[in-house]
Backbone:
């Protein structure tokens, strides 16, 4: 007689060896001494800073904003990223994943935002903000339903997606290592690449030689040392500090009241679905790394925080927010799992948004230095995915084929960026994200090979199945 396997929640799963004893607070919920909290939070900010300010640096000039207005947009993005991060880490009611989860401006929206607002000035920004508000509110409503997809993320899927997250981020580190601006004269120069290599060696050496807390902030120390080395080399720019204001506040609706256009709203709704898919994958990856697997309720709270933060963001002139996968690599490398550390980072982001001169100090870190550290950070994410795949029983059934196809499709935007150049622009929002396409392929193939059309016989061992076996068990299709 066929039995329909039950999807059990994490409370009934086999004990996780990384979980603390029942009488001890989970490391995710632990607080650290103030100095450790601040420095560890600052390390998260340093890892994500370039990713937060890059989208407004692209969108601002594209829509016709002045350099000063673009700088204002960058400060607003830091401020709103801090708000979104606090929503994720601290949370309230059923909002927030309550994991060491960093939120910031999503790169997925850059291309459609440029298309919406190109050369329209303040009106273009107002239309972008209106579309973000509508798409985010719709995402907030959909979160309780979208989170139920977690049952379709067994290890063969999560491992594939985590690996793709790391592999998708590595080109960002390589670009930073070359200088970040492909049109610059020194892009890819031996100086830039040498500085990236020096920083990489410094970070690895600090991780090897230091112990305790200093080892945990090796990335931050590596960035500081790398920046100091870069000063005599001549690639550290102090101009941002000279021109920055001491105090600044992202005045609500600085560019005018939001405007609502149907085409723009549809475009940003697609972006929101992409962001929700990536955030779901990131939460599953982070939950695995910190020893607190993300269940449906965790993902629902995380998606609500994502979408609420995105809905509030335009009020303060910020863009759509989503998970920052690079910080997952930092958690994996440092083993600092406290969500309050990341909350401290969120507080620092808010202060940076209110104090442009302080934000410019963080901006002193040259991109080649950040790229050298990024190779370690993003590589750590890919390594975590490979570790998850090791438990995915690749020798059974078609699991190896699932991984091969999903990774292959997910690497297309990375290995061949112009592969989809002939496709409609609206489709490129999804197709240009290797994480999203690889995730969809992995889910569909897992359903096709491991679920659809198969039956399982009930047996005495059914109740002893662990969580991964239950998640991978085939569904009965009647």
Residues:
């Amino acid at each position: 007689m066929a039995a329909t396997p039950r999807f059990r929640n994490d409370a009934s799963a086999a004990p996780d060896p990384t979980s603390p004893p029942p009488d001890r607070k989970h490391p995710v919920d632990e607080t650290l001494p103030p100095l450790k909290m601040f420095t560890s939070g600052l390390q998260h900010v340093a890892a994500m800073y370039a990713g937060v300010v890059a989208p407004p640096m692209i969108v601002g000039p594209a829509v016709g904003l002045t350099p000063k207005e673009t700088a204002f947009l960058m400060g607003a993005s830091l401020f709103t990223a801090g708000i979104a991060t606090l929503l994720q880490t601290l949370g309230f009611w059923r909002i927030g994943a309550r994991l060491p989860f960093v939120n910031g401006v999503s790169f997925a929206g850059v291309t459609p935002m440029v298309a919406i607002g190109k050369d329209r000035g303040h009106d273009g920004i107002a239309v972008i903000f209106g579309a973000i508000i509508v798409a985010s509110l719709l995402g907030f409503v959909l979160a309780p339903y979208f989170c139920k997809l977690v049952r379709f993320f067994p290890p063969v899927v999560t491992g594939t997606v985590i690996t793709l997250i790391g592999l998708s981020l590595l080109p960002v580190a390589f670009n930073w290592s070359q200088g970040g601006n492909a049109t610059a004269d020194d892009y890819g120069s031996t100086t830039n690449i040498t500085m990236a290599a020096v920083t990489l060696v410094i970070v690895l050496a600090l991780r090897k030689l230091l112990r305790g807390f200093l080892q945990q902030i090796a990335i931050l120390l590596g960035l500081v040392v790398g920046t100091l080395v870069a000063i005599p080399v001549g690639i550290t720019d102090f101009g941002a500090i000279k021109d920055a204001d001491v105090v600044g506040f992202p005045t609500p609706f600085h560019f005018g009241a939001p405007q609502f256009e149907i085409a723009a709203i549809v475009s940003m709704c697609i972006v929101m679905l992409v962001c929700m898919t990536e955030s779901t994958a990131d939460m599953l990856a982070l939950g695995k790394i910190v020893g607190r697997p993300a269940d449906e309720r965790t993902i629902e709270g995380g998606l609500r925080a994502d979408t609420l933060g995105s809905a509030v963001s335009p009020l303060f002139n910020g863009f759509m927010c989503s998970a920052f996968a690079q910080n997952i690599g930092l958690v994996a490398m440092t083993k600092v799992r406290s969500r309050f550390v990341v909350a401290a980072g969120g507080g620092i982001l808010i202060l940076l948004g209110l104090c442009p001169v302080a934000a410019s100090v963080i901006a002193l870190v040259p991109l080649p230095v950040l790229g050298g550290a990024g190779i370690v950070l993003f590589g750590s994410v890919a390594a975590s995915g490979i570790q998850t795949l090791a438990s995915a029983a690749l020798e059974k059934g078609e699991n190896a084929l699932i991984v091969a196809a999903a990774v292959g499709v997910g690497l297309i935007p990375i290995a061949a960026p112009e592969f989809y150049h002939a496709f409609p622009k609206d489709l490129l929002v999804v197709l240009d994200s290797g994480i999203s396409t690889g995730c969809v392929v992995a889910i569909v193939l897992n359903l096709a090979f491991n679920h659809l059309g198969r039956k399982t016989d009930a047996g005495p061992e059914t109740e002893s199945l662990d969580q991964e076996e239950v998640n991978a068990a085939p569904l009965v299709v009647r």
